[in-house]
Amino acid sequence: MEIRINGLLAMLKKGTSFEYVAENRLFSGSDGYTLSITFPLRHCAQNLAIFGNINRQDVIAGKVIFDCEIRDRNFYKFGSITITEINDAEVKTQFLEGRSEQNFDMTFDKVYINELSLGSPKVTNPASLSPSQAWDPVTQQFESVALPWWNDSSEGLPHNFADYVDGRYQWAEKTRDLTWQPYLLYITKKICDDRGYTYDFSKWEEKEEYKYLLICNTLPGAWDVPEYARALPHWTVAEYFEKLELFLGGEFTIDHRGRHISFAFTQQILQDAGSVRLDRVIDEHTVEVKVEDEQCDYIEAKNIVYKDCDHQMWKYYSCDWFIKSWGRSAVVYDTLDQLLAANKWLATWNGNSMRGSNLNKVLYAKNLDMYFVIRTVDRTFVQTDVFGHNRYNYKCILQPVNLFGGRIVDDTTPKINMASACSSPSRASRSRAAAIAPILTMMPSKGPAHSHW
After folding, report:
1. Which residues of 40-61 are buried (b: 16+ CB within 10 A; e: fewer)?
2. Cut 0.70: pTM above it
3. CA dist 199 → 29, 206, 229 (Å)
4. N or C: which end of the chain has fewer CB within 10 A?
């Protein structure tokens, strides 16, 4: 066996052995680590050169971390080794690899994302660019987009409104300043840049339903501040990546030594991992499977739901109770196209009885695993009848329901501080609740109640 610490060959006592534990990060949140590895110090110049003065304050505080390689025939691991106990005679250490090493490192635990330098929108004057330029991700280099929005808390103040004139869009007269919604992916990259870390988010960028997610606080309009960071929650960088893992259904691998962060989706990790065959077991092999407190840490088994939101559409977006009560009686279609074709005639309704129709029923599309109801959104006056009753024609839409509810309808659901903004997507995949709409809302822990991510 050969162990190199900070590139130097460490000396081991004759007959030294230790136990190496390999965990599955998808279930436990850790990778490989060892129990105690002991190195001699007394009369051992090689190890003294590695570990140095045992009375150093950083050693006493337990902050010493070394690069470490372990080689033993076909067994090879590279990670970090940290001191757990030290005296004049010997030093006891623990080796950490992968996610175990990442969990031990406290680099991101006291750095808050709303205190970083993440930049601000470069243009706020509508005369500087056209609506098509403001809405085009490529033109804006995937930084942010100036979508039209209405600020109810500012006496109905409109932002980024445009008129369609002579075959093209132009800014409406009421649009005095442009306000921008940054892309979640862009902000994540800026956080890495601010901390001096390189990154590989190519897997994230390959999926459009995640690539174009927006942080919905529009700046500088929402809070009258231009800095992107000011609209973010008071989360540490570590918390930010932990919450994104739950939201995106993936894994961020943070290499603090190499100052590099990469991302991969959990399903792809599982597919790439393949099967493991155990053979030539020298002594014995045991497997123990257990669930503690009836909770499973496997990310694909977690019933994640999003923080309750106060806008009116939230009752449609998250309604586990409704699906639990009415889902079993839903009218089932194999595809969304079949569902649309069968109910297209309900797009308008004259207010008469629709007994026997699907107007008051729950609809379900198997191919998307999505539930729908038919919702009235507008009405047009027709006439007043002989009895003095006003008659209307109603416009109806197909409304997806429980898009952001739990994937498993039960009473125990962990929440993450994210929610959908007030939008109404008409067609999307439910493979991941948060990927339905191209908009993400996160709740800042401080700030005006009406301001959302």
Report:
1. bbeebeebbebbeeeeeeebee
2. yes
3. 21, 15, 19
4. N
Which amino acid does the sequence have at 177?
D
Counting beta carbons within 10 angstroms of the beta carbon of residue 64, is it exposed (0 to 12), middle (13 to 18) or buried (19 or more)?
Answer: middle
For residue 442, the 8-state DSSP code is E
Inter-CA distances, 237 with 194, 243, 246, 288, Å = 11, 10, 15, 34
Average pLDDT over residues 431-444: 34
Identify which of 429, 442, 290 has the alpha carbon closest to the alpha carbon of residue 367. Answer: 429
Q: Please classify residue 259 by burial: count the beta carbons closer than 10 Å to its beta carbon, then call 0-12 exposed, 13-18 middle and 19+ buried.
A: middle
The closest of 317, 327, 319 to 419, measured between CA atoms, is 317
Strand 162-165 relative to strand 168-171, pairing: antiparallel
In angstroms, the CA 196 to CA 395 distance is 53
- At 59 the pLDDT is 61
Whether omega before 126 lies within 30 degrees of 0, making that bond cis, reads no
Instruction: Give the phi and the psi of residue 138 in degrees, each rounded to 5.
Output: -65, -45
Handedness of CA 429, 435, 255, 3 (dihedral sign): negative
Using CB atoms within 10 A of its CB, is residue 104 exposed (0-12), middle (13-18) or buried (19+)? Answer: middle
Q: Which two tokens stand for residue 365?
A: 């599309």
Instruction: For residues 101 and 33, give the distance between their C-alpha atoms in angstroms, rounded to a whole number.
Output: 8
pLDDT band for position 296 (50/70/90)?
low
DSSP per-residue string spanning 35-52: S-EEEE-TT-HHHHHHH-
Rounded to an integer, what is the distance from CA 431 to the centroid of its chain? Answer: 14
CA dist list (Å): 246 to 222, 312, 316, 430: 27, 25, 22, 15
**Three-class secondary structure of residue 221 per DSSP:** coil
For residues 284 and 153, what is the distance between their CA atoms, to the nearest angstrom?
67
Q: Is-contact 94 35, C-beta < 8 A?
A: yes
Q: Please give the backbone phi and psi of residue 354, each rounded to the nearest 5 degrees, phi first.
A: -120, 35
The sign of the dihedral angle between the CA atoms of 108, 111, 117, 119 is positive
pLDDT of 439 > 50? The answer is no
Please name which of 174, 246, 201 lies closest in space to residue 440, comparing C-alpha atoms: 246
| Residues 212 and 186: beta-carbon distance below 8 Å | no
Q: Token digits for 350? A: 């004259």
Confidence at residue 437, expressed as pLDDT on a 0 to 100 scale: 32
